[in-house]
Amino acid sequence: MRLPLLAVLAVLPVAGCSISQPSVPVGSYLGGDYVAVRTFAETQEAEGDVENLAIVLNVKGQCQLALGDVDAARQTFQTAAQIMGTWATSGNEVTAAIVGSESSKTYKGDPYEKAMNAFYLSYCYLQKGEPDNARAALKRGILMDGEVADEKFQADNALLFWMAGRMSRLFGASGAEDYFKEAQTANTFSIEHDARGDVNNAILASPEKGNLVLLLPIGLGPKKFADGREEELARFSPQSHPAVRAQATLDGESLGRSWILNDVDYQASTLGGTAMEGIRKGKAVFKRSTRIGGTVLVNEGLNNLDSDEGQAAAIVGGALLVFSALTSSAADVRHWPTLPSTVQVLVAEVPPGEHDLVVDFLDGSGRPLPQLQHTVRINVPSTGEAWFLIPSLPPAAAKP
């Protein structure tokens, strides 16, 4: 009886190990030092925990976009998508899910993160002149937003539906109207469930309007933390950032303000971690029960070591304590730390040709934040549309 117990004790340090959140220099990212953050991500990609690869790749892709390298960003987001886009796990990961730490597995992202990966990837495809592939990425993001493991939820990311409708129009496919209707439904549903935004959203009221489209990731997305008696619950806390809205001018004329199409904080808190939460709660109950039962039996055994019953109780109690120690119910708190708090959109119908575009990000009182102002010389084609992704971050000082 003693040998199997010793064998279990021998693997205890291995079973309890977990992979921690990569220390992404978020402050440097918010300060506009995209080269430094990209370098960090590349170092982690080459030398860091392989289980965290999707996180650092997504951060790297954002930096590449900020630095103007759209082709490299597309490849980076595509690689991350290949990691995040499947629920299948290896045999080792299944075993780890039963006993070991959830964060010991390859990180594939919560549904809101998968949806955001699809958003960035679709933009990269659009800039490559491939609206069909852009729509394909968006459709995958919609699927990820609405399905977790074997459960189905209301897909309520209006941004993805609206963009899919626009992409359909751009390459002449059917289904645009259906996507636009779904976008309106998603917007209404999310606001009814406490998402930020407007029921009477001007973008969705005229979803086909405009030949100039500004995609505006604003603020800093939520931080994930563990809660509960055994830290078995994944929870999200909002992060402070001065920017809450945007406005734009073209050649000195106002284009109006931005409209929220995706509340990332809401998406995270309402669906993130759902697939594993029931498993973690069960593991937490098992962990507490075996710990209590094991303690009782060990105490009984120690008080009756002269009897066979006492020795058996001590052995069984010790085994229960070992299984309690081996069982990790803690939530995986790894997350994509450089996501925005919202994604907002501004569209306008403007004359074709070259223009001076100025985008100002506003604080909660409506005051512009000068350090975040973007001034861009743009070209609007005579046919088709011009799309630009401009986040509430300092402009890149220079391209690499």
Can you describe this structure?
- With 400 residues, this protein is of the alpha+beta class.
- It folds into two domains: 2-273 and 331-389, Alpha Horseshoe (Serine Threonine Protein Phosphatase 5, Tetratricopeptide repeat), CATH 1.25.40; 280-326, no CATH class.
- It contains 15 helices and twelve strands.
- The strands form four sheets. A four-stranded mixed β-sheet has the order 8-9-3-12. It has a four-stranded antiparallel β-sheet with strand order 7-6-10-11, with no helix packed on it. Strands 1-2 form a two-stranded antiparallel ribbon.
- Helix 6 (70-84) runs antiparallel to helix 8, helix 8 packs antiparallel against helix 9 (131-146) and helix 10 runs antiparallel to helix 11 (176-192).
- The longest helix is centred in the C-terminal third of the chain and has 30 residues, at 274-303.
- The protein starts with a helix and ends in an 11-residue tail after the last strand.
- The model is unreliable at 1-16, 86-103, 272-288 and 323-329 (pLDDT under 50).
